[in-house]
Amino acid sequence: MIITLRVKLGTVWSVDMELDDSTVLADVHLAIQRAVEFDNDHLYTFFVARNECAQKRFLLGDENEFVFSRKLSQLFPLPDKHSLFYLFDYGDNWIFKIVLTRKRPHEPVAGIEYPGVVNETGTKPIQYRGPDDWDEE
């Protein structure tokens, strides 16, 4: 089945993506990287927690092989009051919140490639800021 996830970076940017519910987290990582147009050159992990700053987190990383074996269908629905987060680049700490939208799951549509972006709002963040990217104060 095809599900729709909303990936949000604070209030700055969000994207709705359609993915097969059999997609593993490592492929979700790649889909987010393509959508946000970052270079895929840093470590990453996923975690489930009440909020992005929570110290109590259930890690879904490569050290426990969850990124290569956990399918979206195995994660959702999440425990009550918990969310899925994607942390990219441990230095810059890009933290994306991932939620399952209310859009009903559906069968794949012939001719449509998944994963795919169906909606995008806001401004994509700049991964590497140069001196010309900073607003003058």
Q: Quick summary of this structure?
A:
The chain has about 140 residues and is α+β, with helices and mostly antiparallel strands. The protein has helices at about 25-35, 65-70, 70-75; strands at about 1-10, 15-20, 45-50, 60, 85-90, 95-100, 115-120.
Keywords:
137 residues, seven-stranded antiparallel β-sheet, 15% helix, alpha+beta, Structural Genomics Hypothetical 15.5 Kd Protein In mrcA-pckA Intergenic Region, Chain A
Describe the fold and architecture.
It is a single chain. The protein is an alpha+beta fold and 137 residues long. It has a single domain (2-123), classed as Structural Genomics Hypothetical 15.5 Kd Protein In mrcA-pckA Intergenic Region, Chain A (Roll), CATH 3.10.290.30. The protein has three helices and seven strands, in the order ββαββααβββ. The chain has helices spanning 25-36, 66-69, 72-75, and strands at residues 2-9, 13-20, 44-49, 58-60, 83-88, 94-100, 116-122. The chain is globular and about 45 Å long.
List the helices and strands and how they pair.
Layout: E1 2-9, E2 13-20, H1 25-36, E3 44-49, E4 58-60, H2 66-69, H3 72-75, E5 83-88, E6 94-100, E7 116-122
Antiparallel strand pairs: 1-2, 1-6, 2-7, 3-4, 3-5, 5-6
CATH class: Alpha Beta
Largest sheet: 7 strands, antiparallel
Distance between the termini: 49 Å
Low-confidence stretches: none
Number of strands: 7
CATH topology group: Structural Genomics Hypothetical 15.5 Kd Protein In mrcA-pckA Intergenic Region, Chain A
- The percent of residues in helical segments reads 10-25%
CATH homologous superfamily designation: MM3350-like
SSE order in H/E notation? EEHEEHHEEE
Number of helices: 3
* Rg, alpha carbons: 15 Å
